[in-house]
Amino acid sequence: MAETARSRGLSGDRWLPVIILALSLWDLHTEIRLLFEHFTFTQLIFTIRYHPLAVIMLFCSPSLWRRYGASRRISED
Questions:
Q1: C-alpha to C-alpha distances, 55 to 30, 32, 45, 65, 75, nearest whole angstrom
Q2: Which residues are CB-neighbours of 15 under 8 A, at least 6 positions away?
Q3: Torsion angle of alpha carbons 28, 29, 34, 37, nearest 10°?
Q4: What is the pLDDT of residue 53?
Q5: Three-class secondary structure of residue 52 per DSSP
Q6: What is the per-residue pLDDT for 25?
Q7: Cα–Cα separations (whole angstroms), residue 36 to 30, 39, 40, 67
Q8: Do 17 and 72 form a contact (C-beta atoms < 8 A)?
C-alpha cells in the first residue's frame, strides 16, 4: 500500500510552532537585545505590555511543540 506524507509523519502541521516561535522572536528582537545589555524591570514590563501576543506565544511554544511538533506520531491502522 502506498504511504502518504501524513502517515510518514511529514505533515505540514509540524512547522506551525517553529514559524510562530520565529515570528515572536523577530517581533521581540530589539527588546531582547536591550534586556540582555542592561536588564531593568521597567524594560521587562514594557516588553510584556506592548508585545503581549509575542510574549504569550513564547510561553505557549512548548505546548504547541508537543501538540504539533515532530514528536507527534500518527497511529498506523
A1: 13, 11, 11, 16, 34
A2: none
A3: 140
A4: 94
A5: helix
A6: 95
A7: 10, 6, 10, 31
A8: no
Q: What's the rounded Cα separation, in Å, for the pair 77 and 75?
A: 6
35 contacts 27 by C-beta, under 8 angstroms: no
What are the sequence ranges of the domains in the chain? 12-68
Task: Give the distance from CA 54 to its chain's centroid.
Answer: 9
Residue 56, C-alpha cell as written in the block? 504569550
Long-range Cβ contact pairs of 63-71 (< 8 A, separation 24 or more): 64/16, 64/17, 64/20, 65/17, 67/17, 68/13, 68/14, 68/16, 68/17, 69/14, 69/17, 70/9, 70/14
Question: What pTM value is reported for the model?
Answer: 0.68
pLDDT at 26: 96
Distance CA(24)–CA(76), nearest Å, equals 34
